[in-house]
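Objective 1b. Sequence-to-structure analysis of Oxepin-CoA hydrolase/3-oxo-5,6-dehydrosuberyl-CoA semialdehyde dehydrogenase.
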Amino acid sequence: MEKLKNYIYGQWVEGTGNGVPLYNAVTGEQVAVSDTEGLNFEQALDYGRTVGYKNLSSMTFYDRGEMLKKVALYLLERKKKYYDLSYKTGATHVDSWVDIEGGFGTFFTYSGLAKRMLPNTSFWVDGDTQKISANGTFLGTHILTPSEGVSVQINAYNFPVWGMLEKLSTSLLAGVPSIVKPSPFGSYLTNAVFQDMIESGVLPEGAVQLVCGEPGNILDYVQDGDSVLFTGSAHTGRKLKSLPSIAGNAVRFNMEADSLNCSILGLEAKPGTPEFDLFIKEVRNEMTTKAGQKCTAIRRIIVPEHLIGDVQNALSKALDQTKIGNPLSRETKMGSLVGRQQYEEVLRKVNILKSETELVYDGKHELVDANYENGAFMSPKLFLNDKPFEKNISHDVEAFGPVSTLMPYKDAEEAAALAKRGKGSLVGSIVSHDENFIAETSWKMASQHGRIFVLNRDNAKESTGHGSPLPTLMHGGPGRAGGGEEMGGLSGLHFFLQKTAIQGSPDVLKAITKIYQQGAEKKFSDKHPFQKYFEEVEVGDSLETAGRTVTDADIVNFSNVSWDHFYAHTDATSLTGTIFDKTVAHGYFILSAAAGLFVSGKKGPVIANYGLEECSFFKPVYAGDTITVYLTAKEKINRGVKGRNIPSGVVKWMVEVVNQREEVVCVATILTLVAKQSPFIDLNVKNVQRMLNGLTESTPVLWGKMSPQQMIEHLEQAVLVSFGEPEAEKCFTPEEHLEKWQDSLYNHRAMPKEFTAPFLPQDGTLPEPTHRNLEAAKLSFMDNLKKFVVYYKENPQAEHMNYVFGKLNKEMWELMHKKHFTHHFQQFGLI
């Protein structure tokens, strides 16, 4: 029987003991053995703190985000084999989709957040700069850096993939190395996914390690700077949190525990309403998805007392119709528990619930292609607690399976009170169309819940459901739920980051944070900042504009253009008792006039105005005042660009508008999209000619079999096709791939060296030269390049077929030629 290997200190290591046998939850057959005996956990943690921390923390947030995306794409291509293993844990196809592709989706989400919102540095400036001196020479701010340690992540058995990737998404993005310790049950699935993560070659050495089996004494070696993340029972979590190594060394500890989550049916949601039907469907789904083995599953069904019978009957019918059995069968809607051990534990909790509450539904399902003896199958069970304020067992005991309890309430006050008797929950839901009921109930129950999910007819089609934690929202809860916080968008990274206050002069803060601070030295040059590519812009690059004297006509004209006829701009007789001495220029006119002063009219790398982040007006500007603008590069943000967009980054510019007395009248931060410098040659005819001057018959080829003349004639043929002389007869790329290929023209990735043109003979032979010599070929090529430029000036809307990229317009042909020329000029060392 295969023994699962562990991945520690950069190698796959097999345990030296007998290990723990792991069984197929459906058939009872043994699948694998997990074993951690003999592993040196102290060495594993030290390896993560040294090698892993050095490699991860030196990467930028942006690059770590790209790393997550690459790993997720690699795993997505191999997902079929993960599904094959997931079925053995008792999970249906839908259960597996939530676990497997939900995990990949978390990586994709955090990758996107990083590339949109995080800096291209290894630290993160948190919050605004604080002015802590009268003259602004002493400032303060905060930076976040990766906590210098390793994260030990202990996961539950119910989500072997998502449980791992959900924690790794934040720790890896924060720059903290991790040791993954899955539950032994289902760890064969975790192991398979982890193997491929390592095989991808994307993760730096030491970034992740895997311990597949019993945890041994691994937590004895955690120390200050390390962190422990635990998902499981509240009882076990509290024991771990109190360990001397954790409590005594100030180790960061995050717990996400099972909880007695509830769902509340609104008072008005009687049978026949959309909300009643939605409620029954949602409760049934939460009882049967993953066979109820979800930390977010509905355990307490809180229903208006006059609707208890209706809900019990409708829910019983819905559960009757739920097919249980082999997850490989298309009929099956609910699989098994993860194993016999879990089955016995759930049965024990069911018997405890029976001691105080009535079992009103105990499904007698016939299994689909399976049997109760070999598999860990359990039919759904519904209890009724008729006195939920007296009988507390429903609020104390959780059966972690397809088990839930009905309980009545009278009004919103009682509904919220019952919800809170769970003593802390991951999620509570309200199914109602009565906004007043929803508001009153949610406010009162919020203090004991990590998330409140509201469902009704308005959001049902797009709702993700009661039990689905989302990467952009916090997953955790107070009290019994553990008091932890996971995910929550970028907030999830804070657990792994050290927050440090930085104090100093504006120039010092600029040097540390890479963000311009008001009062720091400006860098002036003859080149307009808007004529610089993203890579060329430096924080502190500045421009001082000419002055503009504001006139009465400006104020009147702006009122007419904007339709802003506020009295302070138009009626001098109404200014008594105001802060204005006379009619004042509009604030947005000042901002517009400032833009008119600092923009560069000449086409350059600045693509577009991306937004206005903040704007404040400090002093009024009257007719006769002269304004001058200081434009300064404040911050640069790298940006991931997809599809047919020009590769670019965002530059934040500080705009300071002063009057003739050098008084600041307006400060704003504007954002611009700035193009990145293309690595490909420009189609400027003189530039191309200059490069071709270095090409001779004896110029060696660096790759491929082309001669210099064949290369030039090949490029000339591409130029001729681009304006239809001759028109390409067909495109060789399949239609379903065409959009992807056309999109690739816009990125800055070079053409592959070993690409065989589909229109050339398959045996690799090249056409014989058609010009008498290389010089004649170069002359003809340059003549046709000039024709291309003129053609698209006269026919800007023209489109012509390309053999590989399909029908291209002017912009696409220019991009194609830039890449194509660069590719072949590099082939002969001309660049």
